[in-house]
Specification:
The complex is a heterodimer.
Chain A (H helix, E strand, L loop, with lengths): L7 H14 L12 H8 L3 H13 L3 E4 L3 E4 L3 H28 L3 H12 L19
Antiparallel strand pairs in A: 1-2
Chain B lengths: L2 E12 L2 E7 L2 E3 L3 E5 L6 H8 L7 E6 L8 H4 L2 E4 L11 H11 L5 H10 L13 H14 L4 E5 L7 H17 L3 E5 L3 H4 L5 E6 L2 E7 H4 L3 E7 H8 L4 E7 L2 E7 L4 H10 L2 E4 L2 H9 L27
Parallel strand pairs in B: 4-8, 4-9, 6-7, 7-8
Antiparallel strand pairs in B: 1-2, 1-3, 1-5, 9-10, 11-13, 11-14, 12-13
Helix pairs in contact in B: 4-5
Classes of the chains: A mainly alpha, B alpha/beta.
Chain lengths: 136, 313
Amino acid sequence: MFDDSRPIFLQLAERIADDILRGRYAEGEQVPSTNELSAHLRINPATAGKALGLLVDRGILIKRRGIGMFVAEGAKAEIAAERKQDFVRDFVQPLLAEARALGLEVGELSRLIEAEASGVDPNSAPTPSTETEITP
Amino acid sequence: MKYAIETNGLTRVHGSTRALDGVTVQIAANTITGLLGRNGAGKTTFMSLATAQDRPTGGTVEVFGRPPFEHAAVLEQLCFIRDNQRYPDDYKLKHALRAAKIFYPNWDQNLADELVSLFRIPEKTVVKKFSRGQFSALGIVLGLASRAPITFFDEPYLGLDATARGYFYDVLLSDYQKHPRTIVISTHLIDEMDRLLERVVILDQGRVVRDADVEDLRGAAHQVTGRAAAVKEYLAERTVLSQQRVGGLATAVVDGAIGAEDRAAAEIADLDLSAVSLQQLVAAYGFDAADSIHQDETSVPEVALATSEGANS
């Protein structure tokens, strides 16, 4: 669930941001409290509090005194914008490194990505239209 | 910052052994602090001195700003659960609970009853005949239900199965949330318990080697693995905490987070870098070069050696 490479509060903040990005918490909706996160994830409450505090500082969560933490309006777009900046480093570069190790050309790699995106198995017959006709 | 416990040059000598050797630490109030280190590092000695069950040879210890010795007002705020607590021969569960109720001013009987049934502690067996796990569970009940402003648990999990340990972590966190107080725990189950902690003090041979927020130690060191010659070169300008060499391969734990420069150097030299867990870090600090059975003359001298398997657990 958490790895040893970075502080847990950073990993937890990222997970909550992830949940917002994927719509698990809608904008305006309440997120779990420090104590709930602490109990649920079996982590020190100070760690859970730090994760929420970080998201408040970044304007992703809003603190309503005595009530709890809520997802800010526009939080989703904000997170998406941040993640796009990291996309090349986190996903494209590792992908290219692995492709190089496997001896895959960039052109071949693009074809694999396009095929995957259109839901077609690139190893199957080159005429995808016939696939729908296969019946048991 | 308000400190629950402050020591200055705290030292305890037993014969020729310096069980505690000039320990200066501050333990913040209302935190869960882990006391980590190998057996004999001084963890139990530290707890004994802070609870006035032993006297220092040198240095000072203050609890809530006062020396714990002969201050009843300080002593009744402390609860020390030893891993080898002795009970009178005829004591059963109810006797232990009754004594604790008299002794601890904040004692919570409802919590005690709840925990007794949670941990399935037998009522009819004399405590002396308890299994190791039942014995530990009794300690946990006394420690938590005491609600003492400072509670010390010395390896509280011995003999507990995984389910019971999980119960302990859950009740510790939930009761700490409801009644914030200072909790000091010594443990060797670091991979399992590090996330419960806020602060850690790592002891080795009676001295403090690290005193930090547990979150600051996560990712604060890394492990390098690869061909021995390449590892040796990588270590040349880095702070090595431990090193191990087996045949032509070597592994070392290096102080510092993995930076872009480290990555580049590792890539060129075909080395693998990985994060180390707090458990691996503590092992690295506790390792004596003399313990190494694989050390040879080509190893970097004077470095300790320790790696636990599974770099990326």
